[in-house]
Amino acid sequence: MGSNDLLSGCGGDSGAGGFCCPLAILMTLAWLREVIPLDCGAGSVAMARMSDWPNSSVRERHAAVSTSPDVLRSLVRRATGDDLDQVARIVEGYDNEVYRVRTRSGQRVFVRIRRFGGGLESAKCEARMIERARSVGVPGPEILLLDQVRIDATDYPVMVQRGVPGRALIETYGTLTREQRRRSLSELGSLIARLNSLRADADWRDGFRTEIGNRRDERAAVLSAGFGSDEFAAMITALEGYVDHSSDGHAAMCHGDLGPRHIFLDPDGSISGVIDFGDTHPAAPLHDLAVLRVRGSGVGGAGLDLAPVLTGYGALTTPDFRRRLDLHTLMISLSSLGIGVDEGDEACIFRETARIRTLLKEIRR
């Protein structure tokens, strides 16, 4: 079954680091900015030391799987007509086993095997969303192959994408001038607006209510971070009141994980690519702005400046708009806090606790 057949069906993972010598495998720990050369032995990909992996959830998922160079070679040949030259494994994300490949002719592609999350239908939906995003001018990756691959007697969805040009925003933001940053973020806001122009036949309030239930289930984690029962109750009440009084439930297609690792820039600061559409789903148009606000908080020390993003997005920054954005941000921040507590990530707990307290003050005004 080829990519064209699969793309007609439905209406995370990248990294950085140097390449290795031919047909040796590197494991790139994107979160640690560390590259560890590994010996492939008899042909299966060796695993890094457990203590070097980003966090326990990712460690447990990725440590259990590997794909042989022979399988990777076959996939790359089908996608590009070329052979492997250099391969790097990217250890990041919850759904895909990912390899960055350079072919003998110099093509740079990514092999993404959906080992952990969703089946073929999920992969088809992601591919369809990438094509829809590209159709409105969002520079998503080109899909070279979408199919299934058999590994250890099990069929897994696989997608081979051409690498987008440039470098991730998280790596380049600190090198940009103030004017380049302003232009980059304004362009990013415009791209979010284009993506949100893809309307979905759904009511975002349904999913938002489900997420409120999820946050309520995380009460113990939130309290363990230092919040009182009354503060937690105030958060849930504010979120419930917001969704209950929202008159417009029309959903837009949202990227879902629009963080600085998934946005790529040219050397002059122009946006050259947006990657990892695996979390794309119908949601409130403000969802991607809220995700970016949370994911981009540590970039460049002070975090991403929201003002040029909103200018590019075309938002009227009225008090009502800011309150709605604050409530969506609260939802995302509470989720991040829960993950931080589960993982014992003290930096995340500190960051999200401070953000949530600030948001509560703004929401109560």
Q: Would you count the extended β strands for me?
A: 13
What's the CATH topology name of the largest domain? Aminoglycoside 3'-phosphotransferase, Chain: A, domain 2
Provide mean pLDDT, rounded. 85
Shape: globular
What is the SS-derived class?
alpha+beta
Between the first and last Cα atoms, what is the distance in angstroms? 57 Å
Poorly predicted sequence stretches spanning 5 or more consecutive residues: 1-53
What is the CATH domain class of the largest domain?
Alpha Beta
Strand residue content: 15-25%
Domain Protein kinase: 84-365
GO molecular function: ATP binding; protein kinase activity
Keywords: Transferase
Protein name: Aminoglycoside phosphotransferase family protein
Structure summary:
The protein has 13 helices and 13 strands. The protein is α+β, with helices and mostly antiparallel strands. It has 2 domains: 3-162, Phosphorylase Kinase, domain 1 (2-Layer Sandwich), CATH 3.30.200; 167-364, Aminoglycoside 3'-phosphotransferase, Chain: A, domain 2 (Alpha-Beta Complex).
Explain what the structure shows.
- By secondary structure, this protein is of the alpha+beta class.
- It folds into 2 domains: 160 residues, Phosphorylase Kinase, domain 1, CATH 3.30.200; 198 residues, Aminoglycoside 3'-phosphotransferase, Chain: A, domain 2 (Alpha-Beta Complex).
- The protein has a 7-stranded mixed β-sheet.
- A hairpin with a 6-residue loop joins strand 3 and strand 4.
- Helix 7 runs antiparallel to helix 9, helix 9 packs across helix 12 and helix 12 runs antiparallel to helix 13.
